[in-house]
Write a structure and sequence with these properties.
Layout (H helix, E strand, L loop, with lengths): L2 H7 L2 E6 L11 H18 L5 E8 L5 E8 L6 H7 L6 H5 L6 H15 L3 E6 L5 E8 L5
Parallel strand pairs: 1-2
Antiparallel strand pairs: 2-3, 3-5, 4-5
Helix pairs in contact: 2-5
Amino acid sequence: DYESSLQEKCLLLECQIDSNMPPLLNGKGQLVRKVIANLTENAIRFCAPSGRIRIHAEVAQDQTHVHVRIEDDGALLSPASVSSLLDPKDVSWLSTAQHPLGDAGVSLSVAHRLALSIGGRLHHTPTLDKGNMFHFFFPLSPTE
């Protein structure tokens, strides 16, 4: 789905998915895909030309949740800008002023609210060198 955007910026997209990942995710699959898509689109948007985006999804050892990491080589996002988007109580910026991250901020906020709707959460950490890493955690139900 991202081929033209990746080619336009000469970006490398690496994806590693745990072989233990349940295929259907009991109806959560559509929402999980949307969260990952929003985070990936933002990574493409912020990644510098010739950069790299890494997606890694794994089932926790205790089989109770999934951890998806999306890491990019883009400019480091301000922790304050990101934290306001990941605070479920603070949506004031949506109605009063445009967020400093623009459309990417809206996309991130939507991803976070979708994650919350399935019992999950998002977390942002800067990478060691340059860039951002978003962690998306969501629970597995007992039948998955």
